[in-house]
Amino acid sequence: MGRTMKPLACLAWALSLINVVMAADYVVGNPGGGWDGRTDYKSWSAAQTFAPGDSLTFKYNSYHNVLEVTKDAFEACTTTDPIFYDNSGSTTIALTMPGTRYFICGAPGHCLGGMKMVVQVADRPAPTTPSSPPALPPAPPMPSAPAPAPAAAPPRRAGHKKHKKRYCPPENLHAPAPAPAPTVQAAEPDFPLAMFAPMSAPPPPPPTSGGPAVLRATWGEATAALAALAWFMLVAL
């Protein structure tokens, strides 16, 4: 609550300061007359612009006084039960709010003789502020370059199949290890008879004609060959 009242008090003080600066004090009847019964108060009041914060100053001699009255008392020039009365010779009335104020002189016959005045207190006009320059229209957008059209694909030939892209391994991969060389198994375990007739053995000497030695050698070779062939057939079965 206190925080709310403080800004409001500051605002009221600022408004009162503005009213003091802009307020004006009007001396009744100036510059050609006064509160004396000879001034046309209706014309003088209509020529002024009264606003809240202004004031009226009545200057008069001892034959006059100032009474503020209601509208009915003003029209009937009734001096009984006034709102305000003063006969000091210099009376200042503060105009604090908008509205209509009624003043008369209470001396006998003076109000009926025309010594009466109506004051219209209007709202103070708001100070005029310079109009802001018209806003410039926004600049039109810059035309953008059209996007290039996509290149047309070359026509396919009839019967042409789309080849799949082959995968090429990167160059920095390690080459696969070479496959081990096949091991050749010696034929001697499968052919034990090779011990009797090795392939690397030198050919027998040519037989000589005649003689039992030659016949025995020929018969032995044939026997060995038949035995090797029988063994090979047995192993194959």
Write up what this structure looks like.
Residues 157-167 have a biased composition (Basic residues). Residues 169-185 have a biased composition (Low complexity). GO terms for molecular function: electron transfer activity; metal ion binding. Residues 124-185 are annotated as: Disordered. By secondary structure, this protein is an alpha+beta fold. It has a domain at 21-121: Sandwich (Immunoglobulin-like). It is built from 4 helices and 7 strands; from the N terminus they run αβαββαββββα. The protein has helices at 2-22, 41-46, 71-76, 212-236; strands at 25-27, 55-59, 66-69, 84-86, 90-94, 99-104, 116-121. The strands form 2 sheets. A 4-stranded antiparallel beta sheet has the order 4-3-6-7. The chain has a 3-stranded mixed beta sheet with strand order 1-2-5, with no helix packed on it. The longest helix has 25 residues, at 212-236. 10% of the residues are buried. Mean pLDDT is 73; it is low at 126-130 and 186-198.
Topology readout:
Blueprint: H1 2-22, E1 25-27, H2 41-46, E2 55-59, E3 66-69, H3 71-76, E4 84-86, E5 90-94, E6 99-104, E7 116-121, H4 212-236
Parallel strand pairs: 1-2
Antiparallel strand pairs: 2-5, 3-4, 3-6, 6-7
Organism: Sorghum bicolor (Sorghum)
Domain Phytocyanin: 24-123
Biased composition (Basic residues): 157-167
